[in-house]
Amino acid sequence: MGLSPDKTQKSEPSGSPETDALNRLHCACMKLRKARSIKDGLDVILEAAVELTGACKGIVQFFDSAGQALPMAAHQGIDDAFHTHFRTVGVRDESACGRALDTLRCVVIPDVKKDFLFSAHLAAAQDAGYQAVISQPLLNSDRKILGILSVYFATPHHPQYAELDALELYADQAASFIEQWRMGDAILERDLKLELFIRHSSAPVAMLDHEMRYLAASERYLTFYRVGERQIIGKSHYDVFGNLDHRWIQAYQRALKGEVVTSEEDCYITHDGVPLWISWEVRPWFRADAAIGGIVLTTVDITQRKKAEQRFFNLVQAVPEILLLVDESLKIGFANKAAELQFGMTASELQGLPIKTLLLNTVRILRSYWRSVSRGGSKVSPESLRTVHEIQVRTSGGELHSADLKISECDSIEKKFILLSVTVTEERKKAETAMRELRGILDNSAESVVVTGMDGCLVSWNRAADELFGIAESAFKGLNSIERLVPEDRQAEFDAHFRSVLAGETVEPHETERLTKGARTIPVKVTMFPLKDEKGIVSYVVSILQDESVTAKMRRKVEESSNP
Fold first, then answer.
1. Contact criterion met (CB below 8 Å) for 35 and 47
2. Cα-trace Rg, the chain
3. For 303-329, b where at least 16 C-beta lie within 10 A, e where not — what string?
4. What is the model's pTM?
5. How far apart are the first and last CA of the chain?
6. What gap in Å lies between CA 148 and CA 61, rounded to an integer?
7. What pLDDT was estimated at residue 7?
8. Comparing C-alpha atoms, which of 295, 138, 271, 129 is closest to residue 211?
9. Confidence of residue 11 (pLDDT cuts 50, 70, 90)
10. What is the pLDDT of residues 417-464, one digit of tens each?
11. Which of 112, 134, 138 lies closest to 55 in space, CA to CA?
């Protein structure tokens, strides 16, 4: 039956065998330290174990914690039959390695023919040509099982204590080697997964070491910062980006000292002069010893959001109605250009003023709305938001004018506001009268005249425009943007001209193209100018179009005749 040697017994007296065993142990450990891979290490372990004990063959089995078994990892001198029989050994198996796994102690079977527990494996042992076996557990630094080292002898074998001591010491070295390689493999696998995660991240992300050298970077990082396809791994961040603003350098230095530095909104100018709006974060990453290993740069591209905000801001500023954002304390948080002109103050001067100083008869109305909004998180009903309230507005000269008030909800990142839209009724009536007069002029004009609102939607066009586009005004009015009549390759040109008019400028006559019914393209000459109210605020955009089809045909005929 198997023996578990009692190390409390007295060892053999010192002499040549022990010295020889120690020398062989030292040589085996030196070979193991030079192993360059886990496979090389296992081969060294088996070769040394066989040599230390004088065995004829050996195996190393790694412990599979999930299956509670010992699959074979490496072998020396093993034939196919043995390999097939002992490919996987369970924790309750009565083989030497199974018992070693169960007890976590060295198991010696001096003669397998005399060990009745080994009877199930006796035929396999005879076929493999061994009669004795020693199985030594491989335990990690926490004394947890890593695997089993087993050596086999062709004849009965009763090991000396020096031999077992040397095998145990060597098993400790082998276990340490396996543990280190596993840790290294785990770290390598983790690093590869981290690199893969960073590389394919949808956000611009980069990881740098303490000397600001790149360890990993996402493909989005390379394209976003115009780094291109060049290899930046291992390069200094300062070399890649050249002359960085001092505030960025300060953020890196603060992060390298352990601080997380963020910015919700910032503008970065690329090396080719392209402005990028970003939200960014710089945070430290830590090594296993808790020391700061470097920093991680994370960027969120908010360029499109900023452009949308700017377009919205431009549109709001161009709206002829007074627009005010009011917080729960009934103070102004934002005012547009129309409000500045109405009240004779700048937007910064209006900000923070109580709304009751400018709009009379509104405090009770607004408090009622705020109570509706805050009560249980409920929102104001759509019917209430469509309600028009008659109020009075104080002008810059102290006069009071009648006005219509509409209220909407408006959420921002920081807080909730109520949006007030105020239309001075006297001014609106004047504008309506002016539009009626303009309509009379338009209908008698031989040129095509188109009037749009600040959002580009059609307000009015004359009979000549009906004929030019082949579309009745009633079929187009109020529902579609005039951009629908602009060819795709002329959209950028149109947008630039439209923005110029919103800014109060006149666009001089220029040749371009428009789309008629059926998406047919015709050449036209267009003049665009703003229509302003009495206070100088742009209310409408007027476009005068001349059909250049006849002129274009004549030009082609002249060109054809001059080039026979």
1. no
2. 43
3. eeebeeeeeeeeebbbbbbbbbbbbee
4. 0.39
5. 115
6. 5
7. 44
8. 295
9. very low
10. 778 888 877 655 565 565 666 666 666 677 888 888 877 888 888 888
11. 134
Reading the block at residue 496, the tokens are 């630039």
CA distance 390 to 403: 6
Phi and psi at residue 382, to the nearest 5°? -55, -35
| Phi, psi (rounded to 5 degrees) for 342 | -65, -45
DSSP label at 41?
H
Map 225-283 to HEC letters: CCCCCCCCECCEHHHHHCCCCHHHHHHHHHHHCCCCEEEEEEEEECCCCCEEEEEEEEE
44-85 pLDDT, tens digit per residue, is 888 888 888 889 999 888 888 776 778 888 888 888 778 777
Q: What span, in angstroms and rounded, lies between the C-alpha atoms of 505 and 497?
A: 9
CB 283 within 8 A of CB 257: no
Q: Which residues are CB-contacts of 98 (< 8 A; sequence separation ≥ 6)?
A: 70, 89, 90, 91, 92
CA 18 to chain centre: 63
CA torsion through residues 278, 283, 287, 293, sign: positive
Closest among 439, 521, 453 to 482, alpha carbons compared: 453
Alpha helices in 347-457 (DSSP H): 347-350, 363-374, 382-385, 425-443
Distance CA 545, CA 462 (A): 11
Query: Cα 227–229–233 angle (5° rounding)?
Result: 80
In DSSP terms, which residues pair with 450 in a beta bridge?
461, 543
What 8-state DSSP symbol labels residue 319? -
Nearest to 171 by CA among 53, 87, 86: 53
Residues linked to residue 205 through DSSP beta bridges, in sequence order: 298
Domains of the chain: residue spans and CATH: 16-185 (3.30.450.40), 200-301 (3.30.450.20), 321-424 (3.30.450.20), 445-554 (3.30.450.20)
Q: Kindly indicate the confidence band of residue 9, based on its pLDDT and cuts at 50, 70 and 90.
A: very low
